[in-house]
Amino acid sequence: MTVSNVYPTAPLRALDAAHHLHPFSDMKSLNAEGSRVIVRAKGCWLEDSDGNRILDGMAGLWCVNVGHGRPEIAEAVAAQMGELSYYNTFFKTTHPPVIKLAGMLADLAPPAFNHVFFTGSGSESNDTVMRMVRTYWQTLEKPEKTVIIARKNAYHGSTMAGASLGGMAPMHKQGGLPIPGIHHIAQPYWFDEGGDLSPAEFGLKAAQELEAAIDEIGEDKVAAFIAEPVQGAGGVIIPPETYWPEIARICKEREILLVADEVICGFGRLGKWFGSEHFGIEPDLMPIAKGLSSGYLPIGGVMVADRIADVLVNATGDFNHGFTYSGHPVACAAAIANLTILRDEKIVERVADDIGPYLQKKWAALAGHPLVGEARMIGLMGALELVPSSPARRRFAGDAGRAGTICRDFSFRNGLVMRAVRDSMIISPPLVITHAEADELVRLTEKTLDDTHAEL
Ligand code: PLP
After folding, report:
1. I need a surface site. Which of 12, 50, 80, 390 has the fewest CB within 10 A?
2. In 236-327, alpha helices (H)
3. CB-based contacts of 49: which residues, under 8 Å, 6+ apart?
4. Which protein residue has the closest C-alpha to ligand 1 atom 1?
5. Which letter does DSSP use for residue 181 in this model?
6. In what order do the strands lie in the sheet with 53-55?
7. Strand order across the beta sheet in which 182-185 lies
8. Hey, which family's this protein in (predicted)?
9. Which residues line ligand 1 (CB under 6 A)?
10. Intrachain domains 9-66+348-455 and 72-344 with the same fold
């Protein structure tokens, strides 16, 4: 990437602070400090308005799987704009890009998944899930099965339903959440909550909370359980091996639909097309977004297993749900071009067999740093648990030691974007990251840890 014209940072920041209400941002500090202005990106590298090059360790927001600035996607989008820039998919209408994308997804997904409902985002996908699972049970004449069990500290989006399904306490505090009909159980977070149990024992215990919740609420009232294969925004919480098989057993035996939120884990992040394939689970529904278009245009969806689709398709009357941009032709064109790159360049296989194991090994070595209590990574998503003295599983006391000492929310320190979640530092780079860039990512992470250690 050539560093080209430098932007006038101060006036841009002032204009931004004056008029732009940012998502998930402390607006007061934004007024005082201003935002970082990103002006262009290529591959794994961002450039800001001062001409700094920054390694994008978060793939944007866990989404730019094929890397930034792929001309094939830009060209596909431009061509589709010229052909059919918009038409809807309501009321039995359709168009070639949405048909082609639905077919491609059916080919790429596990064999039981041959249907997809399109949305504009991951949040809309999870709103759709809520309505679909309840409609499913209504159609089967079990309308009292409405409750959805989700997990504390999960992230399922920012709409009223998405944020309610999610288990983020700071989100629930704003705007009267959660909405009724949602029940949260524990997360399989061994590092923080495992106590004296081994990871395997703790994984089983966390999964069995689902069964206890079903008993408490009543099987005849529970519609579904929703979870991310690996919790992302909650802190890259990789469940112990015992967790998912037990969850799958419970859902099957207790007649509860299993929803795997694949918004982050889908499209290669764990080295399989879908994260649930990594854990060998067969969900009933899979909300998708992010890596579907690598974030080039907003698009999401819900992949529906045939056994569920058969019921929904044969329900009487319309499914009264959809979005103006469901199956937007230009977003579909971006997604088709993106999936073609992922498939033809064997990027998913590369995460499983090459760059994933390569970065995981280097990442694991960071556990030797005095500030790191655990260094974990699966596929290409990882976390460092920060502690006052390694290798103890003990937290810093109070707020003083929070990862906020390294950064607030997003860290751009030393030219590397990482994310802070409580006392952990998160990484989720583009899947096309090279070996040399992976080395650089680890070097910059280590430097940030060293700098922080020296300042504590
Ligand atoms: N589900 C998961 C697992 C996510 O990580 C996210 C976003 O980070 C969402 C849903 C919501 O997606 P969106 O921000 O596109 O609405």
Report:
1. 50
2. 243-253, 275-278, 306-313
3. 6, 7, 8, 9, 12, 37, 38, 39
4. 156
5. S
6. 38-42, 45-48, 53-55
7. 113-119, 300-305, 285-288, 257-260, 222-227, 147-151, 182-185
8. Belongs to the class-III pyridoxal-phosphate-dependent aminotransferase family.
9. 61, 121-123, 126, 155-158, 162, 228, 232-233, 261, 263-264, 289, 300
10. no
Q: Is 154 in a helix, a strand, or coil? A: coil
Distance CA 290, CA 86 (A): 21
Contact 304, 115 (CB under 8 A): yes
Q: Does the model's ipTM exceed the 0.90 cut?
A: yes
**CA 393 to chain centroid:** 26
- Cα 287 to middle of ligand 1, angstroms: 9
Please state, in angstroms and rounded to a whole number, the distance separating the CA atoms of residues 265 and 320.
29
Q: Is residue 113 helix, strand or coil?
A: strand
Q: Which residue from 156, 164, 228, 231 has its CB within 8 A of the most atoms of ligand 1, so it is best to mutate?
A: 156
Best residue among 118, 123, 292, 409 to mutate for probing ligand 1's pocket (most ligand atoms within 8 Å of CB) is 123
3-class SS of residue 254 = coil
Distance 157 CA to ligand 1 centre (A): 5
Type of residue numbered 206: A
Give the list of residues 6+ apart from residue 274 with CB closer than 8 angstroms, or none: 109, 110, 229, 260, 262, 265, 266, 267, 286
| Sequence spans of domains, the chain | 9-66+348-455, 72-344
Q: Closest ligand 1 atom to the C-alpha of 300? A: 15
Query: Each residue's pLDDT tens digit in the chain (456 positions)?
Result: 444 566 789 999 999 999 999 999 888 887 777 889 999 999 999 999 999 999 999 999 999 999 999 999 999 999 999 999 999 999 999 999 999 999 999 999 999 999 999 999 999 999 999 999 999 999 999 999 999 999 999 999 999 999 999 999 999 999 999 999 999 999 999 999 999 999 999 999 999 999 999 999 999 999 999 999 999 999 999 999 999 999 999 999 999 999 999 999 999 999 999 999 999 999 999 999 999 999 999 999 999 999 999 999 988 788 999 999 999 999 999 999 999 999 999 999 999 999 999 999 999 999 999 989 999 999 999 999 988 877 777 777 665 445 445 545 568 889 999 998 888 899 999 999 999 999 999 999 999 989 888 877
